[in-house]
Amino acid sequence: MPSSLRRRTAHLRAAYTRETHALASAGIDRHDARASSAGSGLGLDACTTSQRRLRALLALGLLNHGPTSTWPRNVSLADVTRYTLVVSARHDNLVLTTRAPYNVACWLVGRNRLPQIGLPGLRVETSYEEGWRLRHLPTGAALTVTSDRNGRLRGPATAGSNYAQLWTTGVPLTAEEHAALNALPPLRADTETLLAALTVRLCAHAPDESWDVGTWFSSLAGRPSRAHHHQRRLAAAADQCTLHWDSDPHPDDLFASLTDPVIGLVGAIGEKDSSGWRLRYRHACLTAHPVAYGH
């Protein structure tokens, strides 16, 4: 890809994702900005099979919370969305930049004597002063959590930065993790792509502020107020997914993030009705309905 085209594409991507230009550019280096069979030329949805699986699992962990959750209670990752994040999708890595990398990593990775096990199979591979390089044992996919705005993990690795004693790659999957993963129904490739699209658009917004996903914890000014119990239920099996939630983002904003002509999932076709919306991507379907859970 010519450098001038890459620069323009990175600026366009950053306008929607809140990435820095350098962070966005790293996500499009391997992709033709003019076309992509797995997503837009912005590089959000084109990734390895292992990355697609990891991002789908993250969506299930982040978007299940409360008594209606479809995952075990000790696998809820919803509190990650309370932090100010930037999600940067790369072909073979997913980078989370945040001012609180320690807090975010503690929700994602398990450790001894705690009921919450994080994302099953996610481990610390290398520790740095700015954050962690994580590795998902079942898929081999990488995830980076860092305080560096450009997504870097600089300097020599340091064991002292893992002061939370998060599980490292030397710790095999626990019985609880095996049980949580085995309880998941099989997911087809198109379904994983659709779920992964939710993860990489966690912080997406329109440059003109017409819509904003807001990390699922903030809303656009002027939107109708919604209850804030932050209960979520994302169920997926084979090629069918259903999503229910009782707080932000506004349903129209989430729909827009997946169908926007610039940043939307290429090939996704959506339709809205009075109670929610439905999105189809190839053979997969996501039905989303905001609900008002009881107090």
Automatic annotation (TrEMBL):
This is Transcriptional regulator.
